[in-house]
Amino acid sequence: MTHPPATPLPRSTTPASNHLRTALDLATAGLPVLPLRAGKLPFGNCTACRDNACGGRPNMKTAGACACPAPCHGWAAATTDAAVLSSRPWATAWREAQAVAYHPGGAGLTVVDLDTHEAAAWARESLPRTRTVPTTRGEHWIYQGAMRSANAVRSGVDIKSLMAYARWLGPGTGTMAPLPEVVRALTVKHRPAPERGGVAVAVPTSAGGECRHRTPAYLERGIVMAEGRIADARSAVHTTVYRVFLAVLSTHGRCGCLTETHVQRLFLAAQAKGESVRHCAAAWANARTALGV
Q1: Do residues 161 and 109 lie in contact, with contact meaning Cβ atoms separated by under 8 Å?
Q2: Are 233 and 212 in contact (CB under 8 A)?
Q3: Could you say which DSSP state residue 1 is in?
Q4: What is the pLDDT of residues 200-240, one digit of tens each?
Q5: What is the pLDDT confidence band of residue 100, given thresholds at 50, 70 and 90?
Q6: Under DSSP, is residue 162 helix (H, G, I), strand (E, B) or coil?
Q7: How far is CA 241 from CA 150, 195, 228, 261, 275, in A?
Q8: How many helices (H) and strands (E) does the chain have?
Q9: What is the DSSP string of 127-153?
């Protein structure tokens, strides 16, 4: 899946009293926008969904109850199309809007939402400096690059990017930095430390030491996807773990790019589903044997 290139945030905006004009300015700058009602909640932009009648879920394959003919609300309503924003079906929403929001991931951006002064202090000590926007209780730190969104990745910290919206609070100050790995790592669930049973785990090695046909970013995405497949298993966990190990090894088992850290992450994902470290080691060894690596 590819994402659009990061869109620079506009340096100026119109008064907040005219939310539609602000939205049109942001859309011109490339930010997909939508109106927010009281409580920072999105509108239902069709008759059937007015007052959140459908539960507020965008119409997607995994959406749930919404039966709208097209995405009509939430992050999926965000658009840069001025004709849509100014259309009659949206007129009431803009008249009643309390704020403007945007879809960061749709513009190739990630917002680290620091909801407390303590969280903002943590960011200043732990994260690369970037564009910063003051909020009522903390700050938004905005990076170039999109990632999956997650709430409560640590106390007072949410990640808003793909499939999420953030309130527009102004252009902020500072130079926007590329999305760092330390922010991506915040969405990796913390799991218990692996069991220490004295089980040796062999990591494939190669004289090349570098994946010949993939980039490091591809490997990282592959490990994240593997962790997700294991975490999503609802049955046949043993089989799922073995197949995931096979998939990872079949792609990267011969080129020397896998490290003990990668293997540990896979083991931790399996242990979170109830597998023991010995089961993990056995599945790993069997997968290596099956592939001859």
Answers
A1: yes
A2: no
A3: -
A4: 667 765 544 455 555 667 778 788 888 888 888 877 788 88
A5: very high
A6: strand
A7: 24, 17, 11, 17, 9
A8: 9, 10
A9: S---EEEE-SSSEEEEEES--B-EEEE
